[in-house]
Amino acid sequence: MTDLQKTPTPEYNRRTMANLGFLGLGIMGHHMARHLMEAGHKVALWSHSPAKAEKLAAEKGGIFCKTPAEVAAHADCIFYCVGDSEMSRELCLGKDGLIEGAKPGTVIVDASTVSPSESRKIGEALAAKGIHFLDAPCTGSRPGAESGNLTFMVGGDKEVFERVKPYFEPMGKKLFYCGGPGLGLQAKLTQNLVLSNLLNAFNEGLVLSTKAGVDPNLMLEVLDNSAAKSGLISFKAPYVFRRDFTTNFSVKWMHKDIGLMLESGAELDVPLPLTALTRQMFQAAISKGDGESDICSTIKVLEDIAGVEVKSKGE
Known about the structure:
Elements: H1 10-14, E1 19-23, H2 29-38, E2 42-46, H3 50-60, E3 63-64, H4 68-74, E4 77-80, H5 85-93, H6 98-101, E5 107-110, H7 116-127, E6 132-135, E7 138-139, H8 141-147, E8 151-155, H9 158-168, E9 174-179, H10 183-212, H11 216-224, H12 231-241, H13 251-268, H14 273-287, H15 299-306
Parallel strand pairs: 1-2, 1-4, 2-3, 4-5, 5-6, 8-9
Antiparallel strand pairs: 7-8
């Protein structure tokens, strides 16, 4: 029996390096896995693009694996971060999936943003094999992943979470236990609901004020010193003003998340009218070719309609 399967205390885990796994080495996952290895953990790696896993394993002393099942055979606690619900299900339950290599007592942590109801179904299938499952979506985008300052919202068995909590810490220091299976995802969807609607309001407001003749930098200063102050706006506005739409969080993935919000609203009988409109604006951005760009690029939809560009004077 491994140290993890003996249910050690958090204090024990903090001074003991673990056999971990990480799957999904995209914009965020690459940095999350890197932090785990730099913390001294032995990490088995897998990616849909094998070259990514091979390169990171060579650079940081990880273990390159050809399949998710192979990762599971090496690890007692496994993290993964993928794009959508279908990817999550295939990774866990598909051919050569984690379920085929994981030992009873293994903990699998999904850091993706997927459907809460689908996540619960995956957890039930894993539980039938004696495998623990936590939904732990994270927020902080690429900057948070790079710096190891992500925020995690966790759903699942609290005792299991407390047992593996120290393994989250190289990736993010703010950890919120939200309740039973799927509730970490419900919290994440609510956070992204507020965020996406705020961004849509910013887009409308800045296009309106800029076309009227108000300097965008002055408008941001007004917002930052009013009840409309928003951390999101303060962070994203300078990118818009200098026309830098380098991807920290892409339009297509937020569009996917908004779809999950509406799906959850339908399941729980909660109307989400503003969110439905915001999803259409994100769809418009995708339709004009900005699906891979950062979410702040959605302002270009309204700019094109209004015939104005929100940018710093002199640029």
